[in-house]
Every structure is written in C-alpha cells, then in structure tokens.
Amino acid sequence: MPDRLRILLVEDNPADAHLVAQALGGDGRCAELHVARTGEEALAYLRPGPDGAAPRCDLILLDLRIPGTDGREVLAEVRRDPALRRTPVVVLSTSSAERDVLDAYDLHANAFVTKPLDLEAFLGAVGSVVRFFSAVATLPSR
Q1: pLDDT of 120 strictly over 70
Q2: What are φ and ψ of residue 123, in 5° steps?
Q3: Model pTM greater than 0.85?
C-alpha cells in the first residue's frame, strides 16, 4: 500500500473540492490531491506528456456532472486505457438517480457515493472512502 494516496479529484465545484481537501486533512500528509475541473483536464492529467511520463494516481474521485467531457465519458476513457484501467474510480455525485448509479457501474466504477448534504456527513463519507483505499484495499502497484 502506498504511504500517501495520490488522488485525482475531478470536480468543477470549488466548494466541494475544498471540502474533499478538508476531509483529507488539508495538509497533504495522508494524500496528495490533484484537482481537475473538467473532463478534458482530468484526461490530460492522466495521459503521458511529451516526455512520455504520465502522473500516476492511486484513486480517482469523479463527479458525473462536469463541464465538457462528462464523468461518464472520463470513466469510459479510463477503463479503455490499459495503463489506467486498474485505477480505482469512485463516483462522487450529488445524484442518487438510479440511471446515474447504473451507468457508473456499467462503466465499471468501483463505487458510487452520493454526496451527503450535511457537512459532517460529507467529510465522513470522503474520509471513509480514502481510508478504505489507503488502509484496507490492496491497490495495483504503481
């Protein structure tokens, strides 16, 4: 298991991104957090640059409703890419619509978490996801 999870948060709402950082402790000790505000930004971050190196992440927290390339498309691209397909993806959405849940699992999301409206519940939900992937789950090697 990695010492610190490298997490890509794909979230266009700055307030929710701030809350996720807060749930992670905000100091970078338990996780290294990179935020992408659009699907295009997320995919650009995950793909190799001109030097052939791509930033690797251990976990993707993905909102479904983001500008441009939406979360479903990002998830589909991640699962099609042999270098990324084993990266755990947790959908973190305000939606609890059955169609959204089914779409996410059909695209092989590892989990679907509906963002709680209550601040403490939100922080707890994000913290639980991160604790699971940092302390309980065995992740693919980097």
Answers
A1: yes
A2: -60, -40
A3: yes
- Cα–Cα dist 24/40, whole Å: 24
Please give the single-letter amino acid code of residue 116. P
Place of tokens 């640059």: 49
Tell me, what's the pLDDT at 1?
A: 45
**Residue range 124-128: mean pLDDT, rounded:** 95
CA distance 122 to 118: 6
Q: How many CB atoms lie within 10 A of CB 34?
A: 15
Q: In sequence order, what E strands does the chain have? A: 5-10, 31-36, 59-62, 89-93, 111-114
Sign of CA dihedral 115, 121, 126, 131: negative
